[in-house]
Design a protein that fits this description.
This protein is 57% helix and 24% strand. It has four helices and four strands, in the order H-H-H-E-E-H-E-E. Strands 1-2-4-3 form a four-stranded antiparallel beta sheet, covered by helices on one side. Strand 3 and strand 4 form a beta hairpin. Helix 3 packs across helix 4.
Amino acid sequence: MTPWWSKRSERERLLISAGGAVIAVLGAAQFAVAPLVAWRRGTEARAAAAEERYQLVARSAALATPVQATSAEPVRNVLNATAAALGVELTFVNALADGSVDIQAGPVAPDRLFELLSRLEREHGVKVTSADVSRASEDADLVRVQASLGR
């Protein structure tokens, strides 16, 4: 390499050195700076999404009505009355010794189901302790639910 370099004129050496420097700078930019910039943009996007979710939750919490005092009426009775008022068909209701209730319902429109659960919590202090919601096989617009409710 030394004899080859020695045969180059001063101007050629300068041009080759400048070209090597440009390639080194572009390589550093491609393999170091570009990934860092992409990482930062991704972080900014995740932060913006988190802020948006926080604002949504904060607005929803501000609009939520407080839970009224728990009534002395059994969960099963409250559930049956509220479901009947909303037209939700309960296919299975099992009152447990601790006062909680296991239910199966459906097929039902998702908005009606969630209105039922929301009203139970808001008006009677009955909360969902576990739930399994799935699409109804006979109609993709309807759902079936198995849930445990309690105070």
